[in-house]
Amino acid sequence: MAQCVQSVQEFIQDSFVPLVAALCSEEAERLTRKNNLGFSELVKPFCRLTSEVHMRDPNNQLHVIKNLKIAVNNIITHSPQPGGIRKLLNDVVSVSQPAEGLVTNVITAGDYDLNISDRSVKASVPWYNNWKDTLMELNTSTFYSATTPWFESYRESFLQSMPASDHEFLNHYVACMLVVSSGEPEPVEQFLKLSQEQHRIQHSSEYAYPKWFIPNTLKYYVLLHDVSAGEEQRADSVYEEMKQRYGTQGCYLLKINSRGSNRGADEQIPDPWSQYLQKNSIQNQESYDDGPYTVISNKNADHLISDGLDNDIQVDGLSNNFKAHPLQLDHLSDTSSSFDGTDYIKTTSSLHESKKTSSGTPHGACLTLTDHDRIRQFIQEFTFRGLLPHIEKTIRQLNDQLISRKGLSRSLFSATKKWFSGSKVPEKSINELKNTSGLLYPPEAPELQIRKMADLCFLVQHYELAYSCYHTAKKDFLNDQAMLYAAGALEMAAVSAFLQPGAPRPYPAHYMDTAIQTYRDICKNMVLAERCVLLSAEILKSQSKYSDAAALLIRLTSEDSDLRSALLLEQAAHCFINMKSPMVRKFAFHMILAGHRYSKAGQKKHALRCYCQAMQVYKGKGWSLAEDHINFTIGRQSFTLRQLDNAVSAFRHILINDSKQPAAQQGTFLREYLYVYKNVTQLSPDGPLPQLPLPYINNSATRVFFGHDRRPAEGEKQAATHISLDQEYDCESSHQWKELEEQVVAVVNKGIIPSNFQPTQYCLNSYSDNSKFPLAVVEEPVTVEVAFRNPLKVPLLLTDLSLLWKFQSKDFSAKHNGATKELACGNDMIGAEVIAEFLINSEETKMARLKLFPHQTGELHVLGVVYNLGTIQGTMMLDGIDPSIGLQAGKLVYNGMSVRGRQDLEIQGPRLNNTKEEKTSIKYGPDRRLDPIITEEMPLLEVFFINFPTGLLCGEIRKAYVEFVNVSKCPLTALKVVSKHPEFFTFGGNTAVLTPLSPSASENCSAYKTVVTDSTSVCTALMSSASSVNFGLGTGSQPEVIHVPLPDSVLLPGASIQLPMWLHGPDEEGVHEINFLFYYESIKKHSKMCHRVLRHTAVICTSRSLNVRATVCRSNALEDEGKGDNMLVFVDVENINTSEAGVKEFHIVQVSSNSKHWKLQKAVNLSEDKDYKLASRERGKLCFKAVRCKNSGENYTFADIVFGNEQIISSASPCADFFFRSLSSELKRTHAQSNMFQGAAKQSFDEAVRLIQKCSEVDLNIVVLWKAYVVEDNKQLILEGQHHVVLHTVGKEAFSFPQKQGFKKILGNSDWEDLEQESSEMVLLKFFRPENTSLPTRPTPEQLSNLIKTSLHYPESFNHSFHQKSLCLVPVTLLLSNCSEADVDVIIDLRHKTTSPEALEIHGSFTWLGQTQYKLQLKSQEVYSLQLKACFVRTGVYNLGTHRVFAKLADQVTLFETSQQNSMPALIIISNI
């Protein structure tokens, strides 16, 4: 139980005091009324004796009485009604609330002194940290103090208001004061009348109330004299007459009103009456109707907030407000003034009126301190001389009667010893006894005399004698089975045993248990049972038996009285927290039960307090359902008490936590919240919009998009993908777009990226760089995507949803910004889109896209969203509301009730982690995605692709069209497109001559520029030339940035233009994503935004077509024409198509070469049918002769070898475009690889090695043009395409697409393709360590063989008559060609002999005649002819290639041997004639 002001002994003694009746004449009552007091009220503060009193017991032993108190009451002849008692007790509890700001409830736990009444709680107090801390602090608590004054007031009023009963005499009147004024004409006669009146009341049968202790009641005559108005002599004379008539001990002259009422208050007289008068006693109440106590709250509240708590549940705001010890036994800490609510109305106003009169008007205004002393002296005289002697005499008489009647020994003391020492008769259990509670004893029955004597002894604190009498009476009553009497005796015997000084015997708790059970179950008297519980619980508490006390208190909770149950449950909760090992959860649980019963009893403030105290235990422990219940109830109770802010925050807490409640319950919470919230907003309709808790907004997921939504595809038109809110963010892709934009900006700005360059970001999210203010264009929408999440299981309906913004107008075009004006509204500045209805289903995350339309330049700040929060329409009634309240309220709630509010968008920037200070602290950078700068008008480009394919064959050429539309009011210029794959597309050459005409509608028309050829030119090449500058690939330019050929380079507002675009299928099969970035500028230069970009991602799926491999090797023949430099080109073409695309066969229609130095001359092995077809998996081999070009300069020479009737002009678009673009990509790729592998070693090249290497390099590019016949939908289509092979080195095989390293050198190409499809486990993992060593100074044999090219010219067969001449001499010419760019010293050694026996056997032996060694110097590219003679001695086949050639550069010392074409022997046949 809670800490009480009185000790248990004081409490019990004050609960049972001698009762004295007061009967006053009208004149006497008038005298006391001068002080706004009745006579009984006048003496009440002075009824406790300040000194000890002595009396003698029946054995003539002196007995000391300490701190005796008497009660003086007016005689009321009707017993109080139960309804009146209930009303009184309700009022007493209701007006007794926790003190405001007073340090009354203190918990000392460990080192902490917790002031629970005050709002200031030490921040270090660990009550809220975790469960273990709470238990430990309570466990180590040295003292626990929490007062509940409402309980003490209730207990005192309850005990005072108990009606007198016949089975006990404790609240029967012992004496009666007869009070007469000295100012009456005949005071003595008035005394006589009053005495007769008292006698009539006591002994007449018409008055059953009040009850009197003994027939011979003590009458005490009091003469009241008004000092200020009366005659003192007359008063004295009357008093003398009274003394003679009634004796000096039976009368008293009381002088009062020493100060006249008309005199000013010269001195401050204390008012000891106020504390007593506030406790309105039952004797002063009028009779009440026996109706229930009701609380009439605000008329609107009755519709929604029910008094029952069937659906109770609760909130964060409240929980945060009550930051006190979870066991705070106090009012809401944040509602210090809210308990004075104006909506709390009593059924009757008597209490309020009495309070008003008691507090508004002073009491005792005519009394001085001397009068106070006189009244105190009067009470003492009455007690010493009248009351106590009378009681002592009565006890003796009763004792004598009992002894004489029972024939017992002289004294009850000696008798009790016999009774207790003798054998005991076992008492029957309460269940065995018959229900004889209706048994009544006559007043003179000896059993009642014993009880009467016991009660008298108890009232004068003679507890030992009282216990003996109670014990004796108990046995008699039990024998007679008079259960009501027995229970009363048991109750008082237990109390007497406890109060005996020195505690000779332990407290018999079982007596109390039996008494309570008897009162409750047999006698059905809950009032007496409650008194038993209140007394026993206090006694048990004083003995630290808190568990027993709690069990006792809980046992008496029942449905017949909510107020009693609430108070007892609350005290039980305090018992649990007072235990040695505090049971905090039980405390909280019983506080919840108490709060529920308080609410049912109409005690809303106490109910709210209980729930709030319990909440501090449950909060944050994961008991979400319990939290919901408590919060919901706190919300309801706060609303009923018009504490609307607390109600809103309570309901808010239920909604923002991840509730585990079922959908119906959550719907109830939401509707209650909306109703309460609406009431709050109606109080201040013009105030700022408050924050709404629902739905959740994921601030970091907020995305901002600048610009119009992209148009969908229309028929064959496909709009540029650009960027939209529907696309997922890809970090890698974003980086690629940024690189492309930087690339094109660098080209526009002559290779330098401006310092103020800011990459264009159309969509800002949590991954983008939001550190700078984004740029938006006036008249173009700003779309903000807000991520809403509904945590509830019921749908939420948001209506009139729009953005909340602030705008600051600025003119960026002016040189000096003038005064800026800030506007928070105004559609002429910013237009805002409003979403009429936005439904979020249960537990759904849904994006809302809200648009703003800026009409002026300036700075825009998006602050948040504003909307009406509501629920969808429903018909179910709210739980806990009586349907009889009326359907109108239900309709109001469920037919679309909504409240207006806002939520702010506050986005936290990224954590900074650059400097040491930022790393050691937590700092966040800015996030400015919601603060765009609105710039001047800019052009806006839209791009549409017409007939754009989604699938191509590798190398296929397809023609499409691109439409450029300027949808703004500004002309655009400098249109460029940049892509990482420039080899994929082209807009044609820079000159119209090079670009083919648009084809007709025929599907078989070629995308190439073609001319008809005659049949004679099949074997030879057709020449043409072109410069890379014509195709946008001049020196210093970046091939990725392509200028779009607009007419006059300007696209006017509203204008559109279609341009042809040729596409080239990538060489590798698969799905390719190709990014285009269109760049354009405004004609008018702006300070904020310099350019704009448009993105497009094309997805192309390519399938296999042809695989082209080519090898170049030097020809052995050195012809006379020109310099005799020629080569053989072998082209190997394989059809690797898998027929998935419906391709029937491929036709090789043309092979072209382009190079600055070489050209194809003719086809070597052309078949007669001149038609090269390749079916699936077929391979064809072509051989061509290549010769060096004459006077090529910087232009590329194109040579076309045609296998059909039409020549494709390879030097025109699109053939030359794709060639130059693929060449550029190839050079870029090889350049990157050489950088990777060679690095710094480049600089250490030996010049000689470099020159020798150059001899084996060849710059020849082969273009294979083909047609494919495709059957699709029973219709034959002809597809065209081209493959490029770049030949770098003599003798090294080149491919049309990049090769994977590894097995490909060993396996054939087809085998390699099959191998690629197998599991990736076969790929070898190689570890290597790159060595940073320079290239060797000695060239490789392959490079040496290409330094000097040699060729023997001789007759293939020679006839000689060996009979005529034995030696055969054959002339042989040795041609030497210097392939390098420098002078070369050459040594020819003819002494070399073949040592291999196989060679001798096959080729025979011969001898060179003449000079056997020659030393020559060949100039650059020089061809030298050396005449030799070979001598043969017999016929046979001979190999003339036995010579050795050594060469070195003229300025070098080292001599290298050039390995000749030994693999191709120079055979000669010598025949005999």
How would you describe what is shown here?
With 1473 residues, the protein is an alpha+beta fold. It is 29% helix and 25% strand. The protein contains 34 helices and 58 strands. The strands form twelve sheets. Strands 13, 25, 27, 29, 31, 34, 39, 41, 43, 45 and 46 form an eleven-stranded antiparallel beta sheet that branches. β45 and β46 (1275-1289) form a beta hairpin. The N and C termini lie far apart (146 Å).
What keyword list fits this structure?
1473 residues, alpha+beta, 11-stranded antiparallel β-sheet, 29% helix, rod-shaped
How would you briefly describe this protein structure?
This protein has 1473 residues and is α+β, with helices and mostly antiparallel strands. The chain has 34 helices and 58 strands.
E-strand count: 58
The whole-angstrom Rg is 59 Å
User: How far from one another are the termini?
Assistant: 146 Å
Instruction: State the low-pLDDT regions, or none.
Output: 101-144, 280-359, 407-436, 815-825, 875-895, 998-1004, 1237-1245, 1301-1321, 1331-1336
Q: Per the principal axes of the C-alpha atoms, what is the gross shape?
A: rod-shaped
Give average pLDDT, whole number. 76
Instruction: Give the % helix.
Output: 25-40%
